[in-house]
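Researcher: Structure prediction, please.
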Amino acid sequence: MADKPVRADKASAVAEFTDQFRASAATVLTEYRGLTVKELTELRRSLGSEAKYVVAKNTLAKRAATDAGIEGLDALFTGPTALAFVKGDVVEAAKGLRAFAKAHPVLIIKGGVFEGKALSADEVNKLADLESREVLLAKLAGAMKAGLSNAAATFQAPLSQLVRTVDALRADREKDGSAEA
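Model: Predicted structure follows.
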C-alpha cells in the first residue's frame, strides 16, 4: 500500500515536468554535482523570473521529455541532473548559465532543447554567444530607420535637382533678357 502514494507522487512529478517542457521556450540540462545549496540558490536568482531551475530525477525527467514529444535527450540524463526551464529570453538564460558555469566550474552544461530540437552543450554555448532579443530588435529598428532615411533622400534628390535646374534656366533667361535690352 505504501507504493501507491509514491507512484502518485512520481506521476504528478512527471506531469509537472511534462508541462514545464511544453510551456518553455527552451530547456537546458545541467549537472550540478559539487554545488552547495547556497550556490544553487544564487544560480536560481541569477536566472531571474523567466527561468525555473529544478533538480530532477533522471527517470522522471526522461519520461516527461518523452511525454512532451522531445527526442534526443536520453543520453544526457546521467548523473545528477537539473533542468533550467526558460520561458523568457533564451539567449539571456544561456548567457546566465554560461557565466555561472565559468564562475563555478563544477556546473556542467550537458545540452538542452530549443524549439523542439535537441541541442548539444556546444550549441547551448553558441546560443549564449548571440546578442539578446532586445539588442537584435534595436539593430533591426536602426537598419529600418536608415533604410527609410535613404529612401527619403533618394526620392528628394531628383526634386531638389529639378528645382536647381529650373532656377539655373530662369537665371540664364534673365541674363539673356538683360543682355538684349
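Model: The first helix runs from residue 3 to 23.
Researcher: Thanks, that helps.
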